[in-house]
Amino acid sequence: MAATVMSERGRKLLRDFPALGALHEHDRKGIEGLIGLVERAAEYNRDVALPRALELDERMEREPDYFDWEMMREACKYRFFSLAIPEVLGGLANKYMVTGMALVVEELCSACGGIGLAIAAHSLGVAPLIASGAMAHWETVLHEIVEEEKKGNPVLMAYAITEPSAGTDVEEPEFLAVARIGLEAKRVKGGYRVNGRKCFISGGSEAKYITMTAATDRSRPLETWTTFLVERGMEGFSTPRVELKMGQRACHAAELLFEDVFIPHSHVLGYEGDGIANGILIIMAASRGPVGAIATGIARGAFEHFLAWAREPANGKKPIDEDRIRMALADMYAVLEENRGLYLGHSLGGDALFRNAFTHPLFLSAFMIPRRIRASKPYASLLNSYYGKGLVNILFRYFIKDEDATDMLAKASLAKFACADNAMALVSRALELMGTTPSPQRRWVEKAYRDVKLTQIYEGTNQLNRLALYNTEIAGTLKVEIPGPFKKGVR
Ligand SMILES: Cc1cc2nc3c(=O)[nH]c(=O)nc-3n(C[C@H](O)[C@H](O)[C@H](O)COP(=O)(O)OP(=O)(O)OC[C@H]3O[C@@H](n4cnc5c(N)ncnc54)[C@H](O)[C@@H]3O)c2cc1C
């Protein structure tokens, strides 16, 4: 797209995000690609999310089991389920993958936090497949997602780490070492037998594929924490319940039940015991920043409804004529600016890191092999073998350095807790100032208040994220270690 045909919204975006404006000088095509993504999200909001958000929220309070598949089918047209899938596989993820994700979720969540999460949770599920370099599954699972999306059929993924007895504990190595883990994936011939439960899994009840972390020995969770690919339809696997949620209701939080589920060796992503790095820290290093963007989007939506309320006459006068309301609006605007700086600081850094790997000619050359060979069983077996995984591992270690990944985790945790707390305070202030008189805008802000709370909880509570920032940046005791290749005793 040439700069001369950039839309009004595109020009506004460059003004709203000065960092993008500056980058635009050097990389018009890349930045205008990002603007295109935000425009798609805005169109989806106008046509799909906004017309149904309030009604859906109310319906899901009465019927928490209900799921609006239509909004997901509509999302296919906008290709939102390919946001984290590399371009070489037919997806949309390019050198601005993290930033693209963050900008899209801000936009979607400005209309509805729940619908935004339903879409974003899928990419969180995809992320471990990508980050673990599990290329054997790229040609099957990721290919299926892309191809079905083009036909309007959402094939969804989810990411499951939380267990009933361990939430915060599974997101930090120090806590995981002493966590009381309930679910176990015991080694058996040809794979693993899994028994136990995962809980609060966003999109878990709709996902066809789930990336899941589990201990292969519950008495040594830190050493044996492993990432698996679970497929709906595996015998003994079910999703028996969804929660009645306070906010972000349009996305289910599901319980996953494993009753003697057999998971074959081929479905271990990376090596057994690598879960803490490729299963959690690397994923959180990429995804916590976009959670800051989710919070910012919800807060922005509340700000816009608050502004509309303030401009409307009530009892012969407009709230906006009062200085206290104008000052509140200025404070809210400042918060949105600060938040955008925080999450963009993380996402642009994340892109710089991942770009090393995913746009490198060495990586791209792997896709010059014809797809019929890449999708063949012998090729998948090769990639899934001890040596195949080792090779991919070496490349990952070459492109993504531990210290850069640790820095990314620090920035992600900072963006997550600061944006979420700022957003919570913004929405809370808006609701207080609007008083108790019912109005259409107040309904939206009340929903935003319930929606935004969750951003302080998932992807690690804000307390945990504060500790993560302290441990990485201040104390220097937490380091992300990209798993090493060719581990002794691991096959
Ligand atoms: C709606 C929803 C959707 C979710 N989606 C997903 C998902 O898709 N996938 C997934 O795997 N998980 C998901 N989660 C789980 C979420 O990440 C956890 O709820 C979160 O990690 C907290 O774990 P917990 O609920 O067990 O709380 P706990 O770990 O029991 O924490 C309770 C409180 O104690 C504090 N605390 C705990 N330990 C410490 C400590 N050492 N120091 C200081 N404070 C501490 C916590 O900050 C928190 O305030 C979701 C949760 C919700 C509510």
Q: Indicate the radius of gyration in whole angstroms.
A: 22 Å
The named CATH superfamily of the largest domain: Butyryl-CoA Dehydrogenase, subunit A, domain 3
User: How many extended strands?
Assistant: 8
Global outline: globular
Can you count the helices? 18
Estimate the strand proportion.
5-15%
CATH topology of the largest domain, by name, is: Butyryl-CoA Dehydrogenase, subunit A, domain 3
Low-confidence stretches: none
Identify the strand order in the major beta sheet.
Answer: 1-4-5-8
Overall number of domains = 3
How confident overall, as mean pLDDT?
94
User: Hetero groups bound?
Assistant: flavin-adenine dinucleotide
Structural class: alpha+beta
String of helices and strands: HHHHHHHEHEEEHEEEEHHHHHHHHH
Per CATH, the class of the largest domain reads: Mainly Alpha
End-to-end separation in angstroms reads: 49 Å
Helix content bin: 55-70%
Reported for the largest beta sheet, the result is:
4 strands, mixed
**CATH arch. level architecture of the largest domain:** Up-down Bundle
